[in-house]
Design brief:
With about 200 residues, this protein is α/β, with parallel strands linked by helices. It is built from 8 helices and 6 strands. The radius of gyration is 16 Å and the shape is globular.
């Protein structure tokens, strides 16, 4: 039976979701695997919903879109967006979610409190394997808010739910990220990987 992974990455504009999907694709291609990706971008570059479909397989892939109920992994850069994409997750799939919420425009306009805790609680009741990662703490440790995407990729890879390892993602970073930012991103990758053991939900 061939190895394959269907991954959904969900968050909001400005969180580096498109780059995250490209790094996954690069790592998979380096292992000789077939990859198809597709992004759905929100109305705004920052603050709008962004969903990336990434399909990896040892055999040919017909469509770049993950069918509903077929995602092996749901990577939520934002709790509410992870909940929004739950219909894509297969039964018994894995959810890795960042704790830090980004309030939607509707909540801000209505002056409603949104802290993401209810969303994470809902994710914990959906029957999936749930890993909750404090991405903001990792960003603070590394010294940049721009490494959230790589930190969460490190967590997913360390969880063993992708078709490749943390080390193979590191190789993808070295090959595709600008040299000035390589060390910072690799630090974030390994911080995310270490967080799996301490912050899994």
């Amino acid at each position: 039976m061939s190895r394959s992974t269907n991954l959904i990455i969900a968050g909001v504009g400005g969180q580096g979701i498109v780059l995250a999907s490209k790094l996954v694709a690069y790592a998979a291609i380096n292992q000789g695997m077939a990859v198809r990706t597709s992004e759905t971008l929100g109305m705004a570059q920052r603050g709008g919903s962004v969903v990336s479909h990434v399909r990896v397989s040892e055999t040919a892939i017909a469509s770049p879109l993950v069918p509903l109920g077929a995602a092996d992994v749901l990577l939520g850069f934002e709790p509410g967006e992870a909940v929004r994409c739950l219909p894509y997750l297969r039964s018994g799939g894995c959810v890795v979610v960042n704790t830090h919420p980004v309030a939607p425009v509707s909540a801000a306009l209505a002056q409603k409190e949104y802290n993401g805790k209810e969303m994470i609680a809902h994710l914990g009741q959906c029957g999936a394997q749930l890993m909750v990662i404090d991405g903001n703490a990792i960003c603070a440790e590394v010294g940049s808010p721009k490494v959230l995407n790589v930190a969460l990729l490190g967590a997913v890879a360390a969880a063993g739910v992708l078709c490749f390892t943390v080390q193979q993602l590191e190789a993808a970073i070295r090959a595709s990220v600008r040299k000035a930012f390589v060390d910072m991103n690799i630090q974030a990758l390994h911080c995310g990987a270490r967080a799996v053991g301490s912050n899994a939900g």
